[in-house]
Amino acid sequence: MDGERLLELGGQLYGGLPAAFTPDRAAAEKAARADGDKELATAIKALRKPSVGAWAVNVLVRREAGQIDQVLELAQSLRAAAEAMDGAELRGLTRQRRQLTSALTTRARQLALERGSRLTQTVADQVEGTLNAAMLDAGAAAAVRTGLLVTTISATGLDDLSWESAVAVPSALGTRAAPIEGKAAGSGPALRVVPENKQVKREGARERLAEAEAEVAAAAKSAQQTDQAVSDLQGKRFQLRSEIDELQRRIHEIDSRLDGLDEDIEVAEQDQEDAADALRTAQGERDRAQAALDELG
Asked: What is the pTM of this model?
C-alpha cells in the first residue's frame, strides 16, 4: 500500500467539508480499487468520519499553521517553566496560553462559518479543550499537528489516552498537515493573539442565548409539571379527607345507634329479670297447688 498516497487522501478528506466526507471517501475507495490497490482501498474505507469539533481543529491546523506553531512553541516554554518551578514566568505563560487558545477557538468558529457550518458553544469548548491538551502534552500536540483528528481530545487523563486512536492514520503521528490557502507553517510573526471576529462573537452570543432560552423553557416545563403534580396530590388529599369525614360521620351515626342499642339492652335485661321472677313465683304457686291436691287423695 502507498502510505504517502493514504496520507495525501486523508489530508483531502479531513480538510474538506463534513457533509462531503462520506461521498468523497467512497469515491477515493472506488478509485483505489480501480487502480488495483485493494490494500489502499481497504485503508480508505476504514477512515472514520471526524466529529464536528475534530473537523474544526483539522481546518484550523491547515488554515492557521503559523498560529498553531506559536501555540505549541508556547507550550514547550510553559512545560519548561513548570519544570523549573518559575512561578512568575509560569503565570505569565499560562495567561498567554489562555488568550491564544481562546482566540484560536474564535478563529475556528470563523473558519467554520466561512464553510457554512456554525459551531455550537459545546463544540467550541471541545475545540478549545483540544488546543489546551496539545499545549499540556507532546503526544496530544503531535496528534493535533497531523490535521487528521477524528475526535476532539481532553487534557484530563493524559497518561491513559492513546493519541493514535484520535488520529485517522496513526502512522501520521510525527508529521504535519499541509497548510492550505497559502498559509505556510513557519515560525510566523511574534506571538500574538488572533483578532476576534465580531460575527463569530455575535454567533457565539446567539448560541449562548439560545441555549439559555432552551434551559429556561425546560425549567418552565419542569415547573409546570411539578405544579400539576402538586395540584393532583392536593386533589387526592382533598378526596381522602372527604372520605375520612364521611367515615367519621358514619362512625358517629353508628356510635349513636350503639348507644340506643345499649339502652334497649338494659331495658330488655330488666324485663328479662322481671319475667324470670314471675316465672319462679308461678312455679312456686303451681307446686303448692299440686301438693294440696296430692294430700286430698
From this structure: 0.60
CB 48 within 8 A of CB 59: no
Residue 252 CA to chain centroid, in angstroms?
58
CA–CA distances in Å: residue 179 to residues 8, 10, 78: 12, 14, 25
Query: pLDDT tens, 269-283?
Result: 888 988 888 899 999
State CA 281 to chain mean position distance. Answer: 98
Cβ distance 109 to 124 under 8 Å? yes
Alpha helical stretches, state H, the chain: 3-15, 18-34, 38-45, 52-63, 65-84, 87-114, 121-136, 138-145, 198-296
Q: Who contacts 66 (Cβ-Cβ below 8 Å, separation ≥6)?
A: 183, 184, 185, 186, 187, 188, 189
Provide the grid cell at 40: 489502499
Residue 128 and residue 147 in contact, taking contact as beta carbons nearer than 8 Å: no
Question: Residue 268 corresponds to which amino acid?
Answer: A
On average, the pLDDT of the chain sits at 81
- For residue 140, give the C-alpha cell: 496530544
Instruction: Give me the percent of the chain exceeding a pLDDT of 70.
Output: 81
Which residues have CB under 8 Å from 231's CB, separation 6+?
Answer: none
Intra-chain end-to-end CA distance of the chain, in Å: 149
Reading the block at residue 169, the C-alpha cell is 492514520
Give residue-wise pLDDT tens across range 181-225: 544 444 333 444 444 455 545 655 665 676 667 768 777 877 888
DSSP structural state of residue 99: H
Count CB neighbours of 212 within 10 A: 10
